Amino acid sequence: RTAGTQSYNSTTTNVTLSNSNLTATSTSTAWGNRAYSTVSYNPTNIPSGETREFKFTMGDITKNGFMGFDSTPTTISGHGNDNNASGVDYGMYLVGNGSSNNYLEVSEQGTNKYQSSSNFITSNTIFKITVDSSGVVKYYADATDGTTLLYTSLTAMSGDFYVLFYPYDSGFTTTITSWSNNPEWKERNTV
Fold this sequence. Notes:
mainly beta; seven-stranded antiparallel sheet; 14 strands
């Protein structure tokens, strides 16, 4: 489950990588900080009946940021409601609200598709996003094994997509606990 080695310049990316590059942490507060996988996922390359997935946990549950799939991870995405940005293609927006009154949104291209109840995210929550050979994206989360289905996308993924770490708050941290094909992080700064 290691992601390989990665050269990294914290001055230009605003993200630090640790734990064999499976943990990503934002070092500044702003949309535009990011890390993304070097391996893309394309449904046409997934054998029929199989899925590709990644599971992750969140470090500080009071922080805000995204994890998801994006086709253009080098461009400014934002939540969609911020900075008139287009939004992450397929993502979980983890909203810490600076308190325990947190929640999770499933957001696709800046449109909220699902919102959990308040106080949904705990330090034990496991998140999972999958895509199958037909391009169907599914979002899961729970406090045991990340198998509770929250939302199934109505728009099929088509083309190449990357696993994207897209934080807003400084200190927003996620750790990949498992993923298909072991992609490694590639860091970018859009500022």
